[in-house]
């Protein structure tokens, strides 16, 4: 079974530029999550989708971050414009949709904002 | 709010046992997860506890006491490949909140 796929793996941009990340969850997984992991910290949930609807985006900085999950499968996370403090690893995870089910993580995208 | 505490770093010798403690104060509780994360890689699932007691899975065991808001991950017969960060995460309703992680270094 294929795992969670993410691209790109690495991205370097200058502040005020835009960037987008892509995630393809495990086949059949209804729930998709985007996390931000700053160096030395645990992952922080940015947004959670159930199929193509948003369940929780309370910690998403909506003035600059946006995310969508069209057709309830792939998802994209966008930052526009980027700030220095956005430098982090952006992790995508998916689960079957049952609350207590394990979340499986993708390899992440390491973003560096200069 | 969620408050999840775990030690920052631990060092142990190959073949030894290490216990990583995690204490939590959360507004709700639907279970506790432990993940392993090697440097530069994604977190991988290790264990899930929802009832009090010990769950054993090979060299790794995890314990939970809901009344004390406490869990530990026990790593036995340490191997060099166990050098990684170990993340404690509490599930509250549908939301997983992570601790900062404990970096375990295994020395020969």
Write structural notes for this entry.
The complex is a heterodimer of chains A (114) and B (108). Chain A is mostly beta strands. Chain A is built from no helices and eleven strands. In chain A, the strands form two sheets. In chain A, strands 2, 4, 5, 6, 9, 10 and 11 form a seven-stranded mixed beta sheet that branches. The radius of gyration of chain A is 13 Å and the shape is globular. Chain B has 108 residues and is mostly beta strands. Chain B is built from no helices and eleven strands. Chain B has strands at residues 3-5, 9-13, 18-25, 31-37, 44-49, 53-57, 60-65, 70-75, 84-92, 95-98, 102-107. Chain B is globular and about 40 Å long. Chain A binds chain B through residues 4, 33, 40-45, 48, 55-56, 91, 99-100, 102-108, 110, and chain B through 4, 30-31, 33, 35, 40-45, 48, 50, 87, 89, 91, 93-101.
Give me a quick take on this structure.
By secondary structure, chain A is mainly beta. Chain A is 0% helix and 48% strand.
**pLDDT averaged over residues of chain A:** 94
Low-confidence stretches of chain A: none
Instruction: Output mean pLDDT of chain B.
Output: 94
Structural classification of chain A: mainly beta
Q: Major sheet of chain A, described briefly?
A: 7 strands, mixed
- Separate helix tally of chain A: 0
Strand fraction of chain B: over 45%
Give the helix proportion of chain B (percent range): under 10%
């Amino acid at each position: 079974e294929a795992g969670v796929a993410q691209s790109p793996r690495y991205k370097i941009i200058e502040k005020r530029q835009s960037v987008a990340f892509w995630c393809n969850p495990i086949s059949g997984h209804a729930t998709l999550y985007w996390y931000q992991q700053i160096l030395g910290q645990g992952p922080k949930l940015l947004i959670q989708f159930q199929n193509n609807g948003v369940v929780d985006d309370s910690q998403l900085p909506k003035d600059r971050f946006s995310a969508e999950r069209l057709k309830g499968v792939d998802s994209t996370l966008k930052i526009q414009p980027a700030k220095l403090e956005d430098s982090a690893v952006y992790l995508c995870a998916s689960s079957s949709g049952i609350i207590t089910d394990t979340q499986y993580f993708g390899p992440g995208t390491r973003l560096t904002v200069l | 709010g969620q408050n999840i505490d775990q030690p920052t770093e631990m060092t142990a010798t190959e073949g030894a046992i290490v216990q990583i403690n995690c204490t939590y104060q959360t507004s709700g509780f639907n279970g506790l997860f432990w993940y392993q994360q090697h440097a530069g890689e994604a977190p991988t699932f290790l264990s899930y506890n929802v009832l009090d007691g010990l769950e054993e899975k090979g060299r790794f065991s995890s314990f939970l006491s809901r009344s004390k808001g406490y869990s530990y991950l026990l790593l036995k017969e340490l191997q060099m490949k166990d050098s990684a960060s170990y993340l404690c995460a509490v599930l509250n309703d549908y939301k997983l909140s992570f601790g900062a992680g404990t970096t375990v270094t295994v020395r020969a």
